[in-house]
Protein backbone atom coordinates (compact mmCIF):
# COMPACT_ATOMS: atom_id res chain seq x y z
CA UNK A 1 0.00 0.00 0.00
CA UNK A 2 3.06 2.19 0.13
CA UNK A 3 4.34 2.59 -3.22
CA UNK A 4 3.49 7.42 -9.91
CA UNK A 5 0.37 8.96 -13.73
CA UNK A 6 -0.87 7.71 -16.93
CA UNK A 7 1.71 4.96 -17.26
CA UNK A 8 2.07 4.15 -13.56
CA UNK A 9 -1.62 3.81 -12.91
CA UNK A 10 -1.97 1.78 -16.07
CA UNK A 11 1.21 -0.24 -15.71
CA UNK A 12 2.51 0.02 -12.14
CA UNK A 13 6.03 -0.30 -13.43
CA UNK A 14 9.06 0.99 -11.55
CA UNK A 15 7.44 4.39 -11.24
CA UNK A 16 9.59 7.46 -11.58
CA UNK A 17 12.89 5.59 -11.80
CA UNK A 18 14.87 4.12 -14.64
CA UNK A 19 14.60 0.31 -14.55
CA UNK A 20 18.36 0.20 -15.22
CA UNK A 21 18.92 2.22 -12.04
CA UNK A 22 16.54 0.10 -9.98
CA UNK A 23 18.02 -3.18 -11.15
CA UNK A 24 21.54 -1.96 -10.52
CA UNK A 25 20.71 -1.28 -6.89
CA UNK A 26 18.26 -4.05 -5.98
CA UNK A 27 20.83 -6.01 -4.01
CA UNK A 28 21.25 -2.92 -1.80
CA UNK A 29 17.72 -1.44 -1.83
CA UNK A 30 15.87 -4.58 -0.69
CA UNK A 31 18.10 -5.42 2.31
CA UNK A 32 18.01 -1.75 3.29
CA UNK A 33 14.20 -1.78 3.21
CA UNK A 34 14.04 -5.07 5.13
CA UNK A 35 16.40 -3.64 7.74
CA UNK A 36 13.79 -0.98 8.51
CA UNK A 37 11.56 -3.73 9.91
CA UNK A 38 13.73 -6.53 11.22
CA UNK A 39 17.38 -7.11 12.12
CA UNK A 40 18.55 -10.24 10.32
CA UNK A 41 21.34 -12.49 11.50
CA UNK A 42 24.21 -13.47 9.21
CA UNK A 43 22.57 -16.66 7.91
CA UNK A 44 19.31 -14.83 7.19
CA UNK A 45 21.19 -12.07 5.36
CA UNK A 46 22.86 -14.73 3.20
CA UNK A 47 19.48 -16.34 2.52
CA UNK A 48 18.02 -12.95 1.58
CA UNK A 49 20.92 -12.21 -0.78
CA UNK A 50 20.44 -15.59 -2.47
CA UNK A 51 16.68 -15.02 -2.73
CA UNK A 52 17.19 -11.58 -4.30
CA UNK A 53 19.59 -12.95 -6.89
CA UNK A 54 17.28 -15.82 -7.82
CA UNK A 55 14.17 -13.64 -8.02
CA UNK A 56 15.90 -10.94 -10.08
CA UNK A 57 17.07 -13.55 -12.61
CA UNK A 58 13.50 -14.91 -12.87
CA UNK A 59 12.05 -11.40 -13.10
CA UNK A 60 14.40 -10.40 -15.91
CA UNK A 61 13.78 -13.57 -17.89
CA UNK A 62 10.02 -13.95 -17.32
CA UNK A 63 8.45 -10.68 -16.18
CA UNK A 64 10.32 -7.97 -18.05
CA UNK A 65 9.27 -9.35 -21.47
CA UNK A 66 5.66 -9.22 -20.23
CA UNK A 67 6.12 -5.61 -19.11
CA UNK A 68 7.66 -4.76 -22.47
CA UNK A 69 4.82 -6.36 -24.40
CA UNK A 70 2.31 -4.51 -22.22
CA UNK A 71 4.09 -1.21 -22.77
CA UNK A 72 4.09 -1.76 -26.53
CA UNK A 73 0.34 -2.43 -26.53
CA UNK A 74 -0.23 0.57 -24.26
CA UNK A 75 1.70 2.86 -26.58
CA UNK A 76 -0.28 1.62 -29.58
CA UNK A 77 -3.55 2.14 -27.70
CA UNK A 78 -2.54 5.65 -26.65
CA UNK A 79 -2.18 6.58 -30.33
CA UNK A 80 -5.97 6.30 -30.68
CA UNK A 81 -8.93 7.60 -28.67
CA UNK A 82 -9.38 5.69 -25.41
CA UNK A 83 -12.49 4.16 -23.93
CA UNK A 84 -13.23 3.07 -20.39
CA UNK A 85 -13.11 -0.65 -21.10
CA UNK A 86 -9.62 -0.36 -22.60
CA UNK A 87 -8.24 1.76 -19.76
CA UNK A 88 -9.68 -0.60 -17.13
CA UNK A 89 -8.14 -3.57 -18.95
CA UNK A 90 -4.71 -1.95 -18.76
CA UNK A 91 -5.22 -1.27 -15.05
CA UNK A 92 -6.18 -4.89 -14.45
CA UNK A 93 -3.16 -6.16 -16.34
CA UNK A 94 -0.94 -3.87 -14.25
CA UNK A 95 -2.39 -5.39 -11.06
CA UNK A 96 -1.72 -8.88 -12.41
CA UNK A 97 1.96 -8.01 -12.90
CA UNK A 98 2.16 -7.03 -9.21
CA UNK A 99 0.33 -10.04 -7.79
CA UNK A 100 2.22 -12.48 -10.03
CA UNK A 101 5.48 -11.19 -8.55
CA UNK A 102 4.25 -11.81 -5.00
CA UNK A 103 3.04 -15.29 -5.92
CA UNK A 104 6.52 -16.16 -7.16
CA UNK A 105 8.14 -14.77 -4.00
CA UNK A 106 5.92 -16.72 -1.59
CA UNK A 107 7.96 -19.92 -1.12
CA UNK A 108 11.12 -17.93 -0.35
CA UNK A 109 9.23 -15.57 1.94
CA UNK A 110 7.79 -18.50 3.86
CA UNK A 111 11.24 -19.97 4.43
CA UNK A 112 12.70 -16.63 5.51
CA UNK A 113 9.86 -15.84 7.93
CA UNK A 114 9.99 -19.33 9.41
CA UNK A 115 13.60 -18.63 10.36
CA UNK A 116 12.60 -15.59 12.45
CA UNK A 117 13.03 -15.72 16.20
CA UNK A 118 10.30 -14.53 18.54
CA UNK A 119 12.30 -11.35 19.10
CA UNK A 120 12.49 -10.68 15.36
CA UNK A 121 8.74 -11.19 15.00
CA UNK A 122 8.08 -8.69 17.77
CA UNK A 123 10.54 -6.24 16.22
CA UNK A 124 8.81 -6.45 12.84
CA UNK A 125 5.29 -6.15 14.23
CA UNK A 126 6.28 -3.20 16.41
CA UNK A 127 7.50 -1.34 13.29
CA UNK A 128 4.43 -2.30 11.26
CA UNK A 129 2.14 -1.03 14.02
CA UNK A 130 4.23 2.13 14.41
CA UNK A 131 3.89 2.84 10.67
CA UNK A 132 0.15 2.30 10.89
CA UNK A 133 -0.22 4.59 13.90
CA UNK A 134 1.74 7.32 12.11
CA UNK A 135 -0.45 6.92 9.05
CA UNK A 136 -3.61 7.20 11.12
CA UNK A 137 -2.24 10.33 12.80
CA UNK A 138 -1.23 11.85 9.46
CA UNK A 139 -4.66 11.39 7.90
CA UNK A 140 -6.52 12.10 11.11
CA UNK A 141 -4.99 15.55 11.22
CA UNK A 142 -6.12 16.38 7.66
CA UNK A 143 -9.50 17.70 6.60
CA UNK A 144 -11.22 16.32 3.49
CA UNK A 145 -10.30 19.51 1.62
CA UNK A 146 -6.66 19.09 2.57
CA UNK A 147 -6.67 15.47 1.37
CA UNK A 148 -8.23 16.48 -1.95
CA UNK A 149 -5.68 19.28 -2.39
CA UNK A 150 -2.79 16.87 -1.71
CA UNK A 151 -4.22 14.26 -4.08
CA UNK A 152 -4.56 16.89 -6.83
CA UNK A 153 -0.95 17.97 -6.31
CA UNK A 154 0.37 14.41 -6.39
CA UNK A 155 -1.56 13.46 -9.52
CA UNK A 156 -0.50 16.66 -11.28
CA UNK A 157 3.14 15.95 -10.45
CA UNK A 158 2.87 12.36 -11.67
CA UNK A 159 1.20 13.36 -14.92
CA UNK A 160 3.80 16.08 -15.59
CA UNK A 161 6.54 13.46 -15.43
CA UNK A 162 4.95 11.71 -18.42
CA UNK A 163 3.30 14.45 -20.51
CA UNK A 164 4.63 17.77 -19.21
CA UNK A 165 2.69 20.77 -17.96
CA UNK A 166 -1.06 20.18 -17.80
CA UNK A 167 -3.69 22.41 -19.37
CA UNK A 168 -6.52 23.91 -17.30
CA UNK A 169 -8.89 21.28 -18.72
CA UNK A 170 -6.55 18.49 -17.71
CA UNK A 171 -6.11 19.92 -14.23
CA UNK A 172 -9.89 20.17 -13.98
CA UNK A 173 -10.20 16.46 -14.84
CA UNK A 174 -7.90 15.61 -11.93
CA UNK A 175 -9.77 17.91 -9.56
CA UNK A 176 -13.13 16.47 -10.68
CA UNK A 177 -11.95 12.94 -10.02
CA UNK A 178 -10.60 13.69 -6.56
CA UNK A 179 -13.67 15.76 -5.64
CA UNK A 180 -16.24 13.18 -6.73
CA UNK A 181 -14.65 9.83 -5.97
CA UNK A 182 -15.80 7.85 -2.95
CA UNK A 183 -14.08 8.82 0.29
CA UNK A 184 -12.70 5.42 1.27
CA UNK A 185 -10.37 6.59 4.03
CA UNK A 186 -12.13 4.89 6.93
CA UNK A 187 -12.66 1.67 4.95
CA UNK A 188 -8.99 1.73 3.92
CA UNK A 189 -7.80 2.21 7.49
CA UNK A 190 -10.07 -0.60 8.70
CA UNK A 191 -8.69 -2.85 5.95
CA UNK A 192 -5.16 -2.03 7.08
CA UNK A 193 -6.06 -3.02 10.65
CA UNK A 194 -7.48 -6.33 9.41
CA UNK A 195 -4.41 -6.88 7.21
CA UNK A 196 -2.08 -6.32 10.15
CA UNK A 197 -4.12 -8.68 12.33
CA UNK A 198 -3.80 -11.44 9.73
CA UNK A 199 -0.10 -10.68 9.29
CA UNK A 200 0.48 -10.86 13.02
CA UNK A 201 -1.36 -14.18 13.23
CA UNK A 202 0.72 -15.53 10.34
CA UNK A 203 3.98 -14.55 12.03
CA UNK A 204 3.00 -15.92 15.43
CA UNK A 205 2.03 -19.24 13.81
CA UNK A 206 4.92 -19.32 11.35
CA UNK A 207 5.95 -22.85 12.38
CA UNK A 208 2.93 -24.12 10.41
CA UNK A 209 4.27 -23.67 6.88
CA UNK A 210 0.99 -24.34 5.10
CA UNK A 211 -0.89 -21.90 7.31
CA UNK A 212 1.80 -19.26 6.81
CA UNK A 213 1.64 -19.76 3.03
CA UNK A 214 -2.18 -19.44 3.03
CA UNK A 215 -2.06 -16.23 5.05
CA UNK A 216 0.69 -14.67 2.92
CA UNK A 217 -1.21 -15.63 -0.24
CA UNK A 218 -4.28 -13.88 1.14
CA UNK A 219 -2.33 -10.79 2.18
CA UNK A 220 -0.07 -10.40 -0.85
CA UNK A 221 -1.69 -12.19 -3.80
CA UNK A 222 -5.45 -12.02 -3.16
CA UNK A 223 -5.86 -9.07 -0.75
CA UNK A 224 -9.26 -8.14 -2.22
CA UNK A 225 -10.68 -11.04 -0.22
CA UNK A 226 -10.02 -9.01 2.92
CA UNK A 227 -11.60 -5.77 1.77
CA UNK A 228 -15.31 -6.43 2.18
CA UNK A 229 -18.09 -5.79 -0.34
CA UNK A 230 -18.61 -2.10 0.46
CA UNK A 231 -14.92 -1.23 0.17
CA UNK A 232 -14.46 -3.29 -3.00
CA UNK A 233 -17.52 -1.73 -4.61
CA UNK A 234 -16.22 1.77 -3.91
CA UNK A 235 -12.74 0.88 -5.15
CA UNK A 236 -14.17 -0.41 -8.44
CA UNK A 237 -16.35 2.67 -8.88
CA UNK A 238 -13.39 4.95 -8.13
CA UNK A 239 -11.36 3.02 -10.69
CA UNK A 240 -14.04 3.66 -13.32
CA UNK A 241 -14.05 7.36 -12.39
CA UNK A 242 -10.27 7.45 -12.67
CA UNK A 243 -10.41 5.77 -16.07
CA UNK A 244 -12.82 8.46 -17.25
CA UNK A 245 -10.52 11.17 -15.93
CA UNK A 246 -7.57 9.66 -17.78
CA UNK A 247 -9.64 9.48 -20.95
CA UNK A 248 -10.39 13.20 -20.63
CA UNK A 249 -6.73 14.05 -20.02
CA UNK A 250 -5.69 11.92 -23.00
CA UNK A 251 -8.29 13.53 -25.27
CA UNK A 252 -6.98 16.99 -24.29
CA UNK A 253 -3.33 16.17 -24.94
CA UNK A 254 -1.44 18.57 -27.21
CA UNK A 255 1.03 17.41 -29.90
CA UNK A 256 3.83 18.49 -27.58
CA UNK A 257 2.46 16.37 -24.73
CA UNK A 258 2.06 13.42 -27.08
CA UNK A 259 5.68 13.71 -28.18
CA UNK A 260 6.88 13.81 -24.58
CA UNK A 261 4.78 10.80 -23.62
CA UNK A 262 6.13 8.80 -26.55
CA UNK A 263 9.71 9.75 -25.65
CA UNK A 264 9.14 8.58 -22.08
CA UNK A 265 7.58 5.32 -23.25
CA UNK A 266 10.36 4.77 -25.81
CA UNK A 267 13.00 5.32 -23.13
CA UNK A 268 11.26 2.92 -20.76
CA UNK A 269 11.00 0.26 -23.44
CA UNK A 270 14.69 0.75 -24.33
CA UNK A 271 15.62 0.22 -20.68
CA UNK A 272 13.58 -2.99 -20.55
CA UNK A 273 15.13 -4.24 -23.79
CA UNK A 274 18.58 -3.56 -22.35
CA UNK A 275 17.84 -5.45 -19.13
CA UNK A 276 16.22 -8.39 -20.93
CA UNK A 277 19.22 -8.93 -23.17
CA UNK A 278 21.97 -7.87 -20.74
CA UNK A 279 24.42 -10.68 -19.98
Could you walk me through the main structural features you see in this protein, from its secondary elements to its overall organization?
By secondary structure, the protein is mainly alpha-helical. 81% of the residues lie in helices and 0% in strands. It contains 11 helices and no strands. It has helices spanning 6-11, 19-35, 42-78, 84-114, 118-140, 144-163, 168-180, 185-204, 209-221, 228-251, 255-277. Helix 4 (84-114) runs antiparallel to helix 9 (209-221), helix 6 crosses helix 7 (168-180) and helix 8 (185-204) runs antiparallel to helix 9.
Question: How many angstroms does the end-to-end distance come to?
Answer: 33 Å
Helices, by number, come to 11
What number is the mean pLDDT?
88
Beta percentage is under 5%
Helix content: over 70%
Structural class: mainly alpha
N-to-C series of helices and strands? HHHHHHHHHHH
Protein name: Lipoprotein
Organism: Ferrimonas balearica (strain DSM 9799 / CCM 4581 / KCTC 23876 / PAT)
InterPro entries: UCP028200
Keywords: Coiled coil
Question: What topology does this entry show?
Answer:
Layout lengths: L5 H6 L7 H17 L6 H37 L5 H31 L3 H23 L3 H20 L4 H13 L4 H20 L4 H13 L6 H24 L3 H23 L2
Features:
mainly alpha, disordered N terminus, globular, single chain, 279 residues
